[in-house]
Structures
1.
Amino acid sequence: MLKTHYLHLFNRLFAIQLFIIWLLGCIGVFGSDLTETLWPSVLTGGIFWILLVACSKLPKWQSPRFYWVGLLQLIACWSIFPLFKAIRIHFYSWSADHLLYTIDSYLWLNKSLPEHMIALQAPWFSELIAFCYFSFYFLVIGSALFFFLQRQKNTSEHYFLGLMLMYFFGFIGYFILPAVGPYGAFPTLFTYPVHNGAITLFLTGMVEKGITGMDVFPSLHTGITLYIVGFLFKTGYRKIAWCLTPLAAGLIVATVYLHYHYGIDVIVGALLALLVLHFLFKKKKVENGTHL
């Protein structure tokens, strides 16, 4: 666990990272005439970033300060995230998809992992997997509110720090290797959507609205899912973690099955989650929910 001054330093670094994304996103929005679709992200992202910085400046003796900082970090993060689309359009003229596909094909015996997944496609399975993928948003929101409302400083501090570390390093990966994913980069290889069922089509519509074109490597759907379930295990909420495990497994499979990610994205996302969990708990054991 980070010492207090290092924790404050990371919070500043994360705030700076979010500001850079917001600023570059604003330049992209106005430079590429994307105001009609991304203006809400410019406005809300800026507002929540200001609230985050203001909350971080409150006196240390105000105990509620930390809980609001953690929650505001997540809200600001999600508000600013759509601006990656403007950054991708305005600043990038290349994509890392071919590189990721080549690496993936090498790792999985001359075929990328999403290509191998095609053999598993079935209407009922596609619907189930699409449901699992969509549950990611409820998993993040639910766990964030769970630890926020508990007001257990030690546990909440660990949870939000780990979650923000996942986003911090994930966003760096987006900038270094921007990619749209298998279905967008290789439409002749991957049929999309994989099925025309109600849940799959609903998910497809949601993804189309939120796609940025550079949020593939690493797979934060994989990494954050593993992080949340792992954190629940580590903090004693083992029954909850076991209940979430099948859903988490389906969600991770969905990232590749639905052609949103390459296998290498999933591997790196999983490794990132393991590293963050190791970092959080290597010196200090945190248990709070042993009865759950």
Note: The radius of gyration is 19 Å.
2.
Amino acid sequence: MPKLTLELDLELYRLLVQASRTNGLSLEDECLRRLEGGARRSRYMEALLAELRADDEQKRAEGS
């Protein structure tokens, strides 16, 4: 298996370890889950996505 070495900020590492414990996963599995896109989106990103969708719907309604 290939080996990957990462340099992480200590606080970010602690948060990652905490998330793995909260999710009942090993640190490796938590990293894989995040790499596969399983990490929750931030509230900011959710709000931005909702706003973009609303703008798109409005443009479609105006165009028809």
Note: The CA atoms of residues 52 and 58 lie 10 Å apart.
3.
Amino acid sequence: MTNRISKGAAWLAGGAVALAGAAVFNHVSARAAEKKFPPAGTLIDVDGVKVHYTDTGGPGDAIVLIHGNASLVQDFEVAGLVSRLAATHRVISFDRPGYGYTERPTDREWTAEAQAELLASAARQIGVVRPVVVGHSWGTLVAMAWALAHPGEVKALALLAGYYYPTSRPDSRAVAVAELPGIATVFNNAWGPLQTRIVGPLGNKMIFAPAEVPPAFNDNMPFGLMLRPQQIRASGEDGAQMPANVARLSARYNKLQMPIVVLWGDGDKLVGQAEQSERLVAELPTAAGEAMPGVGHMIHHVRPAAVASAILALA
């Protein structure tokens, strides 16, 4: 018995040392990533929260881009969407709370509505007037929450590969550990970043399938920033809270009266688009939709010209 207890204690001690070592490695890697990839844009204070955004483009009306889960502002730049839109329009991309260089204070719950209020306030602060608001994936929830809270401030919505109605999400269940007290701290700082390093390439293949992952995505995305513990925490919290956010918002979609374009890939393996995008288009009189053949969840990377054209038609 004593021998078994000693072995158990040794395993626990070894595990604790391994987790501590992983946490140190992740901390050092995060600082190195921040040195390699400093803020791509500007930091402003919005109600006590630092918000990071990029702002570029021509004299046309503003277009605001809101990224999905686990991502950051560079996503739209690497996809080639920003350059296409900025040829004629002012284009603003925001890091959502906890992603890139936008803060995510722990004194509040970062629902889609709370994130929308932060970004809407930031947009007003930098002089953005009635933008076309574009959201991809989780960003569609923030875009719609923004439009529901401030309909007079949103010219139109462009919703890309979104999740709009409460259905089962395996990825949401998988990241629920990020919400568990005690365990969340260990996961976000130690195991989570390492796990993402290991399975990330497979995950990227899944979100792009049936298309191939573009070389520009692998070569130019700042993955080091995306693997920082604070971003792992934000991604886990957002994923776990996604069904509750959708349940609240979907009860009010009928209040959306502005022009809306809904785009999705017919091969999306992450979101069942027949029960999401197709349903949204059928239920909203002001919405027009288009399925892109041979495309998965990352439609703005695989069909950037078509996505840009649909957005510009609203602007």
Note: DSSP finds 13 helices and eight strands in the chain.
